[in-house]
Amino acid sequence: MFVSTKKFIGFPCAHRQWRDTGHCRFVHGYSREFTFWFKALELDDKFFVMNFGDFKEFKILLDDMFDHTCLINADDPELELFRELDKKSIIKLRVMENVGMEGTSLFLFKKMNEYLQQKTNGRVWCFRVETRENEKNSALYEEDKQLKSSV
């Protein structure tokens, strides 16, 4: 089994966790970074798990979702207010099921595996994603395809 990682850094965005009773219920922001872990049973013809130059299209998705955007949960009771701010070009709204580090890791795990299926025909898969909001806080989502398929 071969393993490699890829990190994407510098995605300044804002979010809020409306269910929180503390300060996280307020709109606040960080420069997020994302680390992806990949596995492959075989290397490609260049002897790579994944050619990191092949992530140009995926970086476009990251820029669209997380570069100077405002992430709001789909069930946020103030979603319409945020939609109005977006219509007025005050924010660049992105609606997600869960905008937290855990939810973002799951979202990116699914997106990366869709991308890898298309790019490598399933030769490479992502088994872990870490979303970091700062040097102190991060969350991971992990799912091992090999373990899952053998159950």
Features:
single chain; 151 residues; alpha/beta; Tetrahydropterin Synthase, Chain A; six-stranded mixed beta sheet
Write structural notes for this entry.
With 151 residues, this protein is of the alpha/beta class. The protein has one domain: 6-pyruvoyl tetrahydropterin synthase/QueD (Tetrahydropterin Synthase, Chain A), CATH 3.30.479. It is 30% helix and 33% strand. It has four helices and six strands; from the N terminus they run ββαβαβαββα. The chain has helices at residues 56-66, 79-87, 101-120, 145-150; strands at residues 2-15, 28-40, 69-73, 93-96, 124-132, 138-142. The two termini are 19 Å apart. Mean pLDDT is 94; it is low at 147-151.
Structural class: alpha/beta
Question: Remind me, CATH topology?
Answer: Tetrahydropterin Synthase, Chain A
Q: List the total number of helices.
A: 4
- Helix content percent band: 25-40%
Describe the global form.
Answer: elongated
Overall radius of gyration: 17 Å
Largest sheet: 6 strands, mixed
Overall average pLDDT? 94
Estimate what percentage of residues fall within beta strands. 25-35%
Number of domains: 1
Brief write-up:
The chain contains four helices and six strands. It has helices spanning 56-66, 79-87, 101-120, 145-150, and strands at 2-15, 28-40, 69-73, 93-96, 124-132, 138-142.
Q: How are the secondary structure elements laid out?
A:
Layout: E1 2-15, E2 28-40, H1 56-66, E3 69-73, H2 79-87, E4 93-96, H3 101-120, E5 124-132, E6 138-142, H4 145-150
Parallel strand pairs: 1-3, 3-4
Antiparallel strand pairs: 1-2, 2-5, 5-6
